[in-house]
Amino acid sequence: MNANIIRPTPEPTLRRLPAYHRVLQRLLDRGRTVVSCTHIAEDLGLDSTQVRKDLAATGIIGKPKVGYAVPALIDSIETYLGWKNVTDAFVIGAGHLGGALLGYDGFKAYGLNILSAFDNDPAKIGTTIYGKDVLPMDKLPDLVERMHVGIGILTVRAASAHEVADIMVMAGIKAIWNFTQVKLQVAPSIIVENMDLSASLAVLSRKLAERNEVSVSPVIPL
Amino acid sequence: MNANIIRPTPEPTLRRLPAYHRVLQRLLDRGRTVVSCTHIAEDLGLDSTQVRKDLAATGIIGKPKVGYAVPALIDSIETYLGWKNVTDAFVIGAGHLGGALLGYDGFKAYGLNILSAFDNDPAKIGTTIYGKDVLPMDKLPDLVERMHVGIGILTVRAASAHEVADIMVMAGIKAIWNFTQVKLQVAPSIIVENMDLSASLAVLSRKLAERNEVSVSPVIPL
DNA sequence: TAGATTGTTAATCGATTAACAATC
DNA sequence: TAGATTGTTAATCGATTAACAATC
Q1: What's the CATH number where B63 sits?
Q2: Co-location of B107 and B49 in the same domain
Q3: Which of B177, B204, B211 has its CB closest to that of A177?
């Protein structure tokens, strides 16, 4: 009955695709035309069945005994992730982090094009950061509509994060890349992806703490 | 036989602890002295059993019918994550992102203290970013040893990431917070935590692409 | 052809969620 | 006391890994 339910691709798969893409790009640079899952898996320290399933999610079909055509596979991943058509984005919050993202030119490869930044600080409004304008927040709704911008990159302080997110949603933003540590409660139709420094740092800190606990263990005093 | 094997805390648990910490901090500010799992779970949209297990991992013991003492719980999380003692770190790579991290003052709350940055670019060496020195890479080994710095935050370009990581490890760095998209192959004793923008962006991009695929579906031309 | 590799189904593993006894 | 909440064991769910037939 539920045989033809389409499951969305599991998030862990989506998260691994960029790593495959990088390996493939390097192989292409070296002139390789085909590659097997085993090869990719070994390169990244993963299980080859996992790689095969991940790649299958993008719609690519391989040849038994041969493997996958490298250019076709790169194309398949890029198409699947929507990296082939450029998507415009605004940075909301022109602080240190927001500024860094404005200056990062690696987003192009992922089809992400940051147009400009928005902020409420009069000292920042009217300036440019890495050649991109810092505009006042009240211009956001108008510009989101006129330029059909779907992605907002949220880099304000935690204290104003939710208030600003609400403004973004009302302005018509469809997806929020959330660099704050605030859990955003928004309508289910809005896509929220969290880039949580504190979560990552917690893993690092704990592993370091564990390591030190072990090394500091039973020392017999003289 | 294997009844007393100590399992390390699952990573998903570690990643959620900072969110609990934030909720608790807010409750403390409002003067709340006790809190139940249900309350925290509702606030964050999680399952209450999950919250209870996560908190138990930090060693806290609650009172049936009452809940947990807020200050004790905050303390338990901070101790568990090693946030109570300050850990020094170096930023390796003084580009846009490295600079942003040097300027971010939120790390203090997580016990992370960034001392200075290292870079190979003569134009950057000798300058300061947000009051912190940019030093030449060849001074890294000496300073890691003298100042007992355990954490290196890697923010160089992908092309030199692995080479620089190897230098960090040789210099005596114990944990690498890796902001590059390169999968680092280092000794198992070295802790590596990846902060992968491309993985996060892949999830966002795909969800947005899926959404558009649906909305653009069968349109009958006139 | 024989062997390597894909695609797919089954088994395992680990994390989440449900159930429930213990307890303040 | 009764009810709410903890702590813990059992059931469920989803992702990873293993097994294996199909195939170039």
Answers
A1: 1.10.10.10
A2: no
A3: B204
Q: Which of A82, A199, A211 sits opposite B206 (nearest CB)?
A: A82
Q: Which of A105-109, A156-160, A181-185, A189-193 has the lowest mean pLDDT?
A: A105-109
**Which A-chain residues 178-207 have CB contacts (< 8 A) with chain B?**
181-183, 185, 191, 193-207
The answer for B 99-118 residues in CB contact with A (under 8 A) is 99-100, 103-104, 106-107, 110-112
Q: Is residue B208 part of a domain?
A: no
Burial class (CB in 10 A: 0-12, 13-18, 19+), A1: exposed
User: Residue holding tokens 């990581």?
Assistant: B165
| The model's pTM | 0.92
- A58-95 pLDDT tens trace: 999 999 999 999 999 999 999 999 999 999 999 999 99
Look at chain A and report how many structural domains it folds into: 2
Contacts of A150 (CB under 8 A, 6+ apart): A87, A88, A89, A173, A174, A175, B208
